[in-house]
User: What shape does this take?
Amino acid sequence: MRALVTGAGQRVGQAIAVELARQGASVAVHYRTSRAGAERTVAACTEAGGEAWLVQGDLSRTAECRAVVDAVRGRWDTLDVLVNNASAFTAVPFEEVSLDHLDAMLALHVRAPFLLVQGLLPLLRAGGVTEARAPGEGGVVVNLHDVGADRPLPGHAAYSVSKAALAMLTRALAVELAPAVRAVGVSPGQVAWPPDYDEARRERIAARIPMGRVGTPEDVARLVRFVVCEAPYLNGVDVPVDGGLSSRY
Ligand SMILES: NC(=O)c1ccc[n+]([C@@H]2O[C@H](COP(=O)([O-])OP(=O)(O)OC[C@H]3O[C@@H](n4cnc5c(N)ncnc54)[C@H](OP(=O)(O)O)[C@@H]3O)[C@@H](O)[C@H]2O)c1
Assistant: This one.
């Protein structure tokens, strides 16, 4: 199995890369600034029984998206899994959202996944993981959405709009690219804290989660493994991994 995981130098992306490596995958570990973290991901992938290599790029820039595509195409002629995980989450009150911030959110969460899928499509068409898949079925795109994509958090209008657009991209890919390539969304609830959340806020959020605990990056990674390896008929859906948070009033 060959997989590209964006934003894999820490947290959820790192856990997904390692979980796929545990299935024997060769992983292209993408990072932007977290070089040391990405190197730790590569080491953890190797230790988990897979292999991995680094690819760098600022995905809010079109040219760097294309460079990431070129790096993968230069190395591989098939791709089984593309995980669009890279993300930025910064609170900005609505009246202070600048054009630059809005553009950056849309570029990272919508344009980059769009360009990566487009650029890697021939490889994804030639890929495919699960033995249960039918002839003609190939690779899979997993997009990291957010349960907040349709239940916006105050202060995150640009983020929420861009994640909602990404969720639509998932569905658009699912209907246009299948059966050769399927697309599935995974929506975490609270699985890794934003660094600026204080203890009181963390406790308030945790108390709302029906499962009685916040999630972990590994909770998300296990779902991605299931989507990739065990669910060849899953296409066009958004699967929450939130301990029930999005179901409650
Ligand atoms: N954490 C949660 O509880 C939670 C909740 C809901 C949804 N999610 C979603 O789940 C995914 C993973 O969450 P996370 O908290 O693990 O993410 P994260 O740590 O906030 O971000 C993952 C990586 O994205 C990369 N990134 C940011 N801007 C980039 C850019 N312009 N170009 C390329 N890469 C860029 C960063 O790479 P570098 O560090 O290398 O710069 C970062 O390490 C995200 O899509 C997020 O929206 C997470």
About this structure: The longest strand covers residues 182-188. The beta strands are 2-5, 26-31, 51-56, 81-84, 140-144, 182-188, 238-241. The pocket of NAP is lined by residues 7, 9-13, 31-34, 58-60, 85-89, 108, 144, 146, 188, 190-192 (CB under 6 Å). The chain has one domain: 2-239.
